[in-house]
Design brief:
The chain has 75 residues and is an all-alpha fold. It has 4 helices and no strands. The N and C termini lie far apart (68 Å).
């Protein structure tokens, strides 16, 4: 029986310490994909300076700009 294609897997693929150790003994290393992230876009945009935020397009960036403007307005 053939092993399933990775695209057919239902569960996410995790490299455990044991698998990593086995890969290293066989001369392989695992590099996470360059698009991997550990925080969401909302947190990324919130951490940007106003100048850097101005370079971003999209609804979430617009919401962050509006939130910052509302904080600047006196009550």
């Amino acid at each position: 029986m053939n092993q399933p294609n990775q695209d057919d897997l239902v569960e996410p693929f995790f490299i455990t310490e044991e698998i990593e150790a086995e890969m290293l003994t066989r001369g392989h290393t695992f590099e996470p994909p360059s698009h991997a992230r550990t925080i969401g876009q909302i947190q990324i945009l919130a951490s940007l300076s106003d100048e850097k935020l101005s370079l971003w397009d999209g609804e979430i960036a617009d919401e962050e700009r509006a939130k910052r403007l509302s904080l600047l307005k006196p009550n």
